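The authors assume throughout that readers already know how a fold can be written as discrete tokens. In essence, backbone conformation is discretised, so a fold becomes a row of integers matching the chain in length. A single example would do more here than another paragraph of explanation. For illustration, here is how one protein appears when written out as sequence plus structure tokens:

…
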Amino acid sequence: MTITAEQRRARILEVVRELGTVRVMDLAERVGTAPVTVRRDVAALADDGLLRRSHGAVSLPLGDSTSAAAPGRDRVIGMLVPTVGSYFDEVIDGVRAAATAAGARLVLGIASYESADDFAQVEQLLDAGLDGLLMTPNWRPGSDIGDSAWIRDLPVPAVLVERIATPESTAAELDSVGSDHRHGVLLALRHLVSLGHESVLLAAREDSWTAHQVRAGYAEGVQLLGIEPQPVIDIHRPGLESDAVAARISEAVADGVRAVLVHNDQEAIQLVPLLRARGLRVPDDLALISYDDVFAALAAPPLTAVAPPKRAVGTAALELMLRRLGDEPDLPVHHVRLLPELKVRASCGGRSDDEVR
């Protein structure tokens, strides 16, 4: 029976925990896979910090322990996300890798972007015998998260992922781990200002929590940097009204704006040829930055993008959960914010990160 790369790497970790230190050739024999494949898997696991390579041998990272003492051994962790297929895939990957390294099992639930689905999905996950729950509630911009008061009555510890509870809500007392999207927007604005732009347009979705944070970050950033604010171009129907958005951007360019930040990658990639059809080339006539960096590097031209630390968010959320389930149940409530990076590519002009390297 063919096994997936994920299953094969989980088996590699099990063997290394069992033996402590093992030669790659012996590891390949134990796993029943060709040495060249095992070397690739070991390299990937080492890049993720889950293994350590030295002189043809493989071991756990320094300070790690054997499987018998793994902090999450036999723990079952549920994870509720609003969607798969793009942004949250990387978050899930971070959780999954950390769970595998700790000997825990991950159970996934998906609630579409409708808040009414959250509770039903969580009930289904709880039936799996969870020890803890990582959750991304469907809190829509401007909605009353009081409708999610059931969160306080969960029978297991919960960590919010990529969500910030308002201070007055009961959910504010939960652990949370997420990206600082407002800082991410500030990075984009600073980069455009450094290129000489005195005004930056924002075209953004309005249907998600991240979109709300991006919009708030834009309002704060233009004031902080002293650049001229522009009316936000609303993307009401993602993927369905790109031509209308391109028309609005063209009007702004006619008024002197030469830079735009677009949330998210899908919208940004769709806009580039539509702008070109209107006589605007990226980056010659318009500097463009995308927000999310899921597919931005694959665009033509490759798009400069704000890259939230999606995988690291998942890893940090799982590790925080295991700390609370382990020897630190009295750990103070943690609200952890990880800073995005700006990946500089061709869509703003100037030199890209690749060219600098």
Q: What stands out?
A: The longest strand covers residues 76-81. The domain at 181-308+342-356 is CATH 3.40.50.2300 (Rossmann fold).
